[in-house]
Design a protein that fits this description.
The protein is mainly α. It is 83% helix and 0% strand. Helix 4 packs antiparallel against helix 8.
């Protein structure tokens, strides 16, 4: 077996186990806050705190990965913080606003950061891993698909505190797993990377435009985790039904993740990004009209198109717009912005919209905001052609 093939197989197993365990901690964070007794506005404030952590840690850790030329070390450091925060968060099942603000922020923020480092690490191991990123990432979807119903079972059988213990144990196993994985391959230079070097990214019109596109798309995507779940809760959904939706979505992602390399070769990442964005717009318009838990789960079938296309193209388009010596910084700074900022503002905006217009109009407004990334996509095409 070639080294490249071995790397792909190991990473596939790594993604499966990572996402399976992460589903326990992150997947039920919102239902946990509802269980504790926080209302929509309070949940929005608490969940927005996780975005601040994500923005700061992705900026810092992305820079450190490039500076010290290792992604593996900083993945493990991020995971340790994530696991300890999850353990503390799930032990406090009574309302304690400031404690939950701190530890939910750490859980949500480190979830985003840990996964971003994992993705940039994978893209930099070798060219074969980069080309097959979609199929490798598909095993993450399989892990999430398995993890969400198992997480629901643990909650119903043993309560929320058990999730923290299980996740910590699996995080230790994840860290041990990294010992058999190759680290990211960085470009070597006699000159140490300085923080001032990051201005290259900020001054790049192409890079900034791509990041803005995925910011608007991720606002819609993040609303699927929060606003759509709020509608399901209002319609009387329980943890098992919410877990079923997430599990079904993860299963439906698989075909396009596995076909990612073929689709990019055939259609190009730009066309796939525009099509995925259009489908997100349509999906949320439909969410605003359906009025049952089963119907929401049915509309969620569109996850088979939306998330895989946006996930894969966000990596390839950012990678294309980033200089070789800033690959980790480019991906992590982009992720901090389009992932972190969307995580920061979406729960807050959603809470305000729901309070002002109701859940259905809120979903409609969020869906129609897809017009902005589509317009930016047309502008990006002009920049690229010039």
């Amino acid at each position: 077996m070639t080294k490249s093939r071995s790397n792909i197989l190991k990473l596939s197993g790594f993604y499966l186990f990572t996402y399976l365990s992460f589903a326990f901690s992150y997947g039920y964070m919102q239902t946990f806050l509802s269980f504790v007794g926080y209302d929509v506005i309070e949940r929005g404030i608490i969940l927005s705190g996780s975005a601040i952590v994500a923005i700061v840690t992705q900026f810092v850790i992305g820079y450190l990965c490039d500076k010290y030329k290792t992604d593996k070390l900083f993945f493990n450091i991020s995971l340790i913080i994530f696991a300890i925060s999850s353990l503390v968060m799930y032990q406090v099942t009574q309302q304690n606003f400031y404690l939950h603000l701190i530890f939910v922020s750490l859980v949500g923020g480190m979830f985003k950061t840990t996964l971003m480092v994992q993705d940039t690490w994978t893209l930099q191991i070798d060219e074969s891993c980069k080309k097959n990123f979609g199929s490798i990432r598909a095993f993450g979807a399989i892990g999430w698909m398995i993890g969400t119903p198992v997480g629901a079972f643990i909650i119903m059988k043993y309560g929320y505190p058990a999730l923290g213990y299980v996740f910590c144990g699996m995080s230790v196993a994840n860290i041990l797993f990294t010992m058999c994985l190759s680290d990211a391959v960085k470009t070597h230079s006699e000159v140490k990377l300085k923080i001032n070097d990051l201005k290259i990214l900020i001054l790049s019109k192409k890079y900034v435009t791509v990041v803005l596109i995925f910011l608007f798309v991720n606002i819609i995507s993040t609303a699927d985790m929060f606003t759509t779940t709020d509608k399901m809760l209002l319609l009387g959904a329980n943890e098992a039904q919410i877990g079923a939706r997430m599990s079904i979505q993860a299963f439906l992602e698989l075909p396009l993740f596995f076909a990612g390399a073929y689709l990019i070769k055939k259609f190009g990442d730009y066309k796939l990004m525009m099509f995925g964005t259009l489908m997100y717009l349509l999906r949320f318009v439909l969410y605003s009209y359906v009025q049952s838990v089963d119907a929401i789960i049915l509309v969620a079938v569109m996850q088979c198109i939306t998330y895989p296309l946006i996930m894969i193209t966000s990596k390839t388009l950012i990678d294309e717009a980033t200089p070789d010596n800033l690959k980790s910084s480019g991906q992590n700074i982009a992720g901090a912005f389009y992932g972190g900022v969307s995580l920061l503002i979406t729960p807050f905006i959603s809470g305000i919209l729901i309070s002002s217009f109701g859940i259905d109009t809120s979903l409609l407004i969020i869906g129609l905001s897809g017009i902005f990334p589509l317009a930016l996509g047309i502008y990006y095409k002009r920049i690229k052609n010039n």
